[in-house]
Amino acid sequence: MVDLLMTLSALGLAALIGFAGIIKCWRWPQYRASVATWGLPRRLESAALVGLPALEVVVVAVVFAAVLADRWRAASLAALGGLAAVLFVGQLAIWRSAKEARCGCFGKGSRISFRTISRTGFLCVAAALLVLLESRQAVLE
User: pLDDT class for 141, splitting at 50, 70, 90?
Assistant: First the structure.
């Protein structure tokens, strides 16, 4: 039962981040407008525009493959947690420097705020807990 709950939690967390990546691609004009509000240098803006959705989708695909194949689960979840941590730090830095910055996470174009940063922080904590639980379970087996 615990294994099923951990599997569903891992897949749910990955699906949430994957959904955000897919929405960025689907609603490209809104996402592009959001990235323009981040106050990034031109090169970094271009890299974020293309790289962020691609990275989200690739990491999520790796997590799904690892969880469903029951191999490298903790490592793939650590990668997902690392991605969430990068997003968290990025949102925090953008929020501090560009108060009117738009998030673009789920296509809404809502402002980066304490709420969006808290949500991403929660994703980091959830991924870290799943990594710890997966690692503990692997040691016990």
Answer: low
pLDDT at 92 over 80: yes
H or E stretch including 82?
helix 73-97
Q: Classify residue 71 by burial, with Cβ atoms within 10 Å: 0-12, 13-18, 19+.
A: exposed
Residue pointed to by tokens 């809404």: 108
Q: Which residues make Cβ contacts (< 8 Å) with residue 5, sequence separation at least 6? A: none
CA dist., res. 134 & res. 79, Å (int) = 13
Are the CB atoms for 36 and 45 separated by under 8 Å? yes
Each residue of 47-73: pLDDT tens digit? Answer: 999 999 999 999 999 999 998 888 888
